[in-house]
Design goal:
By secondary structure, the protein is an alpha/beta fold. It is built from 13 helices and eight strands. Strands 6-5-4-3-2-1-7-8 form an eight-stranded mixed beta sheet, covered by helices on one side. The radius of gyration is 20 Å and the shape is globular. About 5% of the residues have low confidence.
Length: about 325
């Protein structure tokens, strides 16, 4: 689908409060142990059953969900992963998957291709095993991920690398970009490292230095990425997009782990329409963030209410990390 068409559809969905795009966590369990991961497991809580997930997919379809992202943890750990993918496709959803790729077999790759999956995003943290395995804290994870990539490509799927930049792999950036060219795989690069969902700041120890941030933005031709900052809504959170974790909590977005209701207690549609939290968030606008509205960095700032919330406890207080990145981007033009 063309970007301009998607933008037009999203704008209309925002206005009508249609949950056009939903991220669904199948499980919080993962076979890797990445140093920077925001994921927090709660063993005392039960994850959604297959029956509830199947019913949820029907609810999402009826309320207007068109784009579904299946994530984790590692979603392939879920024993009914392929069945859930099939159910989403049967509901006429455009499906993408976030995975580390280590569990992709030839059979799974062929099955995913037969389902016409829109895209598979795979997290890669280095151009070789030394750095990648150090970050995942798991032996052979690099080799298994790259093998998964090759199996997906052989099956004909559209793949995209997710490069998260941190002090542990920044020196390997050029080689990582070379790797994507060699494998003919597109990529996204993100230098934002967030706290964990429970507020633990440990992952932020891996954040890039100011100098490395500036280097990254220069290397990525930041000028082509900067767009005029909306004075109202920085994204579609709670208006045409949301996230649902594996315990059934409905979040405004995956980066704002603040439950607006649980689908084990209520229907998704009731939560989406009637949640006090979601309706309060829908009144959000950058114009109400006085520190940001008149800030000279607004043009360069990657406004993210989720990051604001994680770092300050409020969507109306600016994230120090967002400010730091905005300064780095501005310095690219100095």
């Amino acid at each position: 689908m063309e970007p301009l068409i998607i933008e037009e559809i999203t704008t209309k969905a925002d206005e009508s409060l249609i949950p056009l795009s939903v991220l669904l966590e199948l499980t919080r369990h993962c076979n890797l142990n990445c140093r920077h991961c925001y994921r927090v497991e709660y063993p005392q809580r039960k994850e959604m059953s297959l029956l509830r997930i199947r019913d949820l997919l029907e609810e999402l379809h009826k309320t207007g969900c068109l784009f579904l992202t299946i994530s984790g943890g590692e979603p392939l750990i879920h024993p009914h992963f392929l069945e859930i993918c099939q159910k989403a496709i049967n509901a006429n959803m455009a499906l993408q998957i976030f995975t580390n790729g280590t569990l992709i077999t030839k059979e799974i790759a062929k099955r995913l291709f037969s389902l016409s999956i829109m895209q598979v995003h795979i997290s890669i943290y280095g151009a070789d095993a030394r750095i990648h395995n150090y970050i995942t804290q798991t032996e052979n994870s690099y080799e298994r991920s790259i093998e998964g990539v090759k199996r997906l490509k052989e099956a004909g799927l559209n793949i995209r690398f997710k490069y998260i930049l941190m002090k542990e792999n920044i020196a390997d950036l050029s080689r990582m970009l070379k790797l994507s060219r060699e494998l003919n795989v597109s990529y996204d690069i993100d230098p934002i490292i967030t706290p964990r969902d429970d507020g633990n700041m440990f992952p932020t120890k891996s954040r890039l230095s100011d100098e490395d941030l500036e280097m990254v933005y220069k290397k990525l031709h930041t000028s082509a990425q900067i767009q005029h900052q909306s004075y109202y809504y920085p994204c579609s959170f709670a208006r045409s997009s949301c996230a649902i974790n594996s315990y059934g909590d409905v979040y405004p977005c995956i980066q704002m782990p603040c439950s607006s209701g649980n689908i084990l207690d209520s229907s998704f549609e009731k939560i989406w329409r009637n949640s006090r939290l979601l309706n309060r968030i829908r009144r959000y606008s950058i114009s109400k963030k006085k520190q940001c509205y008149r800030c000279e960095l607004l043009l360069y700032c990657r406004q993210c209410p989720g990051l604001d919330y994680l770092e300050t406890g409020s969507i109306y207080k600016p994230s120090p990390e967002a400010c730091r990145n905005a300064y780095a981007i501005k310095r690219c033009f100095s």
